[in-house]
Amino acid sequence: MGRPCIRAVVRNVIESVKPTTKEYQTVMNETESLLTRRFYERFGGKPQVSLWAPGRVNLIGEHTDYNDGYVLPIAIGRRIYAAGAASGNDTVTIVSGNIKGEVVFDINRIEPSGDWGDYARGIVAKTRREQRPLAGFNAFFLGNLPIGAGVSSSAAMEVVVCYLLQKLFGYSIPPAGAALLCQQAEHEFAGTRCGIMDQFVSVMGLEGKALFLDCRTLEFKHVPLSLGDYSLVACDSRVERGLATSEYNRRRAECEQGVRILAQRFEGVRALRDVSLSQLEECSTLVEPTIFRRCRHVVTENARVLEAIEAMRTGNVEKFGRLMNTSHDSLKDDYEVSCAQLDLLVNTARSVRGVLGSRLTGAGFGGSTINLVHNSAIDLFQNTLTEAYLKAFDTVPRFFECVASNGAEHAR
Ligand code: GLA
Known about the structure:
Blueprint: H1 6-14, H2 21-43, E1 49-60, E2 70-86, E3 91-96, E4 103-106, H3 118-129, E5 137-143, H4 153-169, H5 175-190, H6 197-204, E6 209-214, E7 220-224, E8 230-236, H7 244-265, H8 277-282, H9 289-313, H10 317-333, H11 340-350, E9 355-360, E10 368-374, H12 378-393, E11 398-401
Parallel strand pairs: 3-5
Antiparallel strand pairs: 1-2, 2-5, 2-6, 3-4, 6-7, 8-10, 8-11, 9-10
The chain binds alpha-D-galactopyranose (GLA).
Residues 58, 62-63, 65-66, 194-195, 197-198, 362-363 line the site of alpha-D-galactopyranose.
């Protein structure tokens, strides 16, 4: 049998189940040569650098990051790969093998344009403002990270550009600084007042480990992901996250409103991270019901992350699954960021024998669910969800297994 063509190999990774390290390395090398070829075809020269940044799924700790709380995401083996070279002038040209249209701009005049290039524009603009070494460059992107599936393709794009600039122009930003730069670029150029989770794990994810991050201090710990015979399988609802930016920013503002009231009552409260459930309950008549529920989600979700870490440490996979379920219920009822499609996927998953937990992952309003599924039940799980989803929404969901992988910092 002849060698499979590169495209087939890359596609294979896209749908793959746990590749071995050797297979993985082969695919990485092949992806790199495909990138180099595509770069050459478009720009007529060799790239000077190539690298990648991953997407993520969050296992638990949703909408806690911008409340100074805890999160537990993993970086996944789906990435944006980039090859780049200095252009020799002030123009940046970025081409993607996955998205139509070239992004072209001058480093001296950068304005948001409302397209996917804004993630790159934001990073370049911030880099310029911080007076780091910078010049025009050409870049080719290729990825196996689904866009709009709630697995942080935007953070991966920001991080890949941030590391591309460091490599091309010869400087190095410490990991937390790189993540913060990417987060600020997203605030300014994409208009989402996101927290730090996505960018941080895209930088600092580690193979086989989840990242336990304290979003106030940015202290973190890599926690061994011991799931026994269980796997993490994402299910993409394919629902466009239309309201995501406005509703996301609104939730953040609601939390801040809650903090203002709680801070008057309790000394030392700077964020919902500082509030216990009993303190919140004491204030139930002072806080408007909607705001109360938003706060309750955040306060209980922070506690769930700590319990989940303990469950992971003691190998209690069942408990971990139960916490995932409670997290989803709280996101649905108290935080109201789920939707009918995600709820159907979650409820159907929970009805499958061998599924220990199911919840939406990421901001919500569409995107994906993350499921803890026994290896022997993966086919049954996929078939059951596909059938139910097709029947209810006339759509085939997309599945991908999530293997904890390295972040951009470990791919330097
Ligand atoms: C998005 C944001 C993150 C985080 C999640 C919700 O992914 O980018 O900062 O707030 O939503 O947990």
